[in-house]
Design goal:
alpha+beta, Sulfite Reductase Hemoprotein, domain 2, Sulfite Reductase Hemoprotein, domain 1, Alpha-Beta Plaits, 4 domains, 5-stranded antiparallel beta sheet
Length: 557
């Protein structure tokens, strides 16, 4: 083994130049010594915990080792808040697809084991709460019988694969990407071969011309396009939010439908095999590998891994606008429509799920869930549209006769369930939206407010028209609930990460602060500026002056 060259002696008080040491390969021993999660995964593979479910169910909660509580994440289970024995259970639904029978099964589980509560997530899943480990031997067989799974719902795995909720039925889509999503789910989701990634990993696959599935914020996005008359995908990589947000970058390649999953698979394998991204949980996500190497170098690495060159992408696809897929729309299929309804603030009670399942089954429809936590009935006979809308309102409490902002706004799980949240989320979002509706009515119909209770960004606050993140404020009376307000973020044609322009706004003042900002936008915007464009034009100081409602606001023209 060669020795490091000696450093030249210091002369004349000069600082010697550092001699760079060549990087040596890391070892698994070093990784497991540094990273306790890697050590836990090595000591017992989390998917193997299934063999112990009966034993763990019979074990008092406080006696279950914390290592096994962590392994439960691979089965879609997290501690509910506070940690007194209840769990959150995440049910994976690729592309948000549900039959009436599956939704009924989830509703019955919610009713029987989860206090009749359920949530639609931004990854098109459904989450239940108040689940007890003692009930798992009853719950898992019922999920399996309904064709449902929680396996790979959480943990260092490929999370639920998302897409456009109206894939296969929307008249505007470039082509139906559903078969690719389902094949990816079959091949990779819950697969032990890909059950030990450095960190969680997120894919989205769609040919929606509006990019409703937010490809900009995924580790890997297959973005539908047509090149030389051939349907396929552009590949975007390195997106993600949390504490270090990134907008995805084009890899510069075009893949056909038949080869679509080869590049994502190569990404999984290259990233997973590089021990550098297992040393620190904080720097393990794939976006950091994209930061380190860049798309060009990663393309070279992927081509070497696949043993062939990839086809150059000629034109990077851009969205034609933005949509929520809400309302009544004709399908490709003659005589059929789909009906998208807001589910504000993303909460479905068990009785609602059961009612929706009954309605859908009776009219021959199915159900899709959206990224913005809404619900769509598909394959509705056109002649039964009015009847279906009436039944949705009367039997499930869901209606189109609301301000559309309710279908555009997102609140994360937050209080009272999430151990990371430091503030109200869904209840605070309702408070804000109701206040803005009273002040501005239909003028805010297209506004998107994304609210999170912590930096993890499950509610995608970095890319809302108005992003809100829970925090705390220290006052003479002690700590109080507060929120950071982010502006200038967005998705689509003007995709950007927002900036926290206002810090630690007291929770009691938040809705009034937002009212002043929205009013300034509506009154002073130029040539129909969007909210993002308006606040991008203004300086931080101008925005802060508007937020305070000071009469000496600077000239904004």
């Amino acid at each position: 083994m060669s020795e490091t060259p000696a450093v030249p002696p210091v002369t004349g008080g000069a600082t010697p130049a550092r001699t760079s040491r060549p990087e040596r390969p890391l070892t698994w021993e070093e990784v497991r010594k540094r990273n306790y999660v890697e050590r836990i995964k090595h000591e017992k593979f989390p998917y193997d915990l299934a063999a112990e479910f009966d034993r763990l169910a019979a074990t008092p909660y406080e006696e279950i080792p914390e290592e096994d509580m962590l392994r439960f994440q691979w089965w879609g289970l997290y501690h509910d808040k506070p940690k007194v024995g209840f769990m959150m259970m995440r049910i994976k639904l690729p592309n948000g697809l549900l039959t009436p029978q599956k939704l009924r099964a989830i509703g019955e589980l919610s009713r029987d084991f989860g206090r009749s509560y359920g949530e639609i997530t931004t990854r098109q899943d459904i989450q239940l709460h108040w689940i007890r480990i003692a009930d798992l031997p009853q719950i898992f067989p019922r999920l399996e019988a309904a064709g449902l799974t929680t396996k790979g719902g959480c943990g260092d795995v490929l999370r639920n694969i998302t897409g456009c909720p109206v894939a296969g039925i929307d008249a505007e889509e470039l082509f139906d990407a559903t078969p690719v999503v389902l094949e990816a789910h079959r091949r990779f989701s819950g697969n032990p071969q890909y059950g030990n990634l450095p960190r969680k990993h997120k894919w989205t696959i769609s040919a929606c011309p509006y990019h409703c599935n937010a490809p900009e914020i995924h580790d890997v996005a297959l973005v539908g396009t047509i090149q030389d008359g051939v349907p396929g995908f552009a590949v975007w990589i390195g997106g993600g939010l949390s504490t270090v947000p990134r907008i995805a970058k084009p890899l510069g390649v075009f893949v056909t439908l038949d080869e679509a999953l080869e590049v994502p698979r190569a990404v999984l394998e290259i990233w997973s095999n590089d021990l550098k991204y297992r040393m620190s949980r904080a720097k393990a996500r794939f976006k950091f590998m994209v930061d380190d190497y860049g798309p060009e170098k990663l393309r070279e690495m992927i081509e070497n891994h696949l043993g062939r060159k990839l086809t150059d992408l000629k034109v990077n696809p851009q969205p034609k606008g933005r949509t929520d897929h809400l309302g009544v729309h004709p399908q490709k299929q003659p005589g059929k429509v789909y009906i998208g309804v807001p589910v504000f603030p993303g909460i479905l009670r068990a009785e609602q799920m059961l009612a929706i399942a009954d309605i859908a089954e009776e009219i021959g429809a199915e159900i899709r869930l959206t990224r913005e936590q809404n619900l769509i009935l598909v394959h509705v006979p056109e002649k039964r549209t009015d009847e279906t809308l009436a039944r949705l309102q009367q039997q499930a409490g869901l209606s189109l006769a609301v301000n559309p902002i309710r279908g555009h706004s997102i609140g994360c799980t937050g209080e009272p369930h999430c151990n990371f949240s430091v503030g109200e989320t869904k209840t605070k979002l309702v408070e804000i939206v109701e206040h803005l509706e009273q002040q501005f009515g239909p003028a805010i119909a297209d506004l998107r407010i994304y609210l999170d209770g912590c930096p993890h960004a499950c509610g995608q606050h970095w890319v809302g028209d108005i992003g809100i993140q829970g925090t705390t404020l220290t006052t003479p009376q002690g700590k109080v609930e507060a929120y950071d307000v982010l502006l200038r973020g967005g998705l689509g044609q003007s995709a950007a990460i927002g900036k926290a322009v206002l810090r630690r706004v007291p929770g009691t003042e938040l809705k009034f602060t937002l009212e002043r900002l929205v009013r300034a936008w509506l009154v002073q915007r130029q040539n129909g500026e969007t909210l993002q464009q308006f606040f991008t034009r203004l300086s931080d100081e101008q925005i802060q002056t508007l937020a305070r409602g000071e009469p000496s606001a600077p000239n904004l023209t």
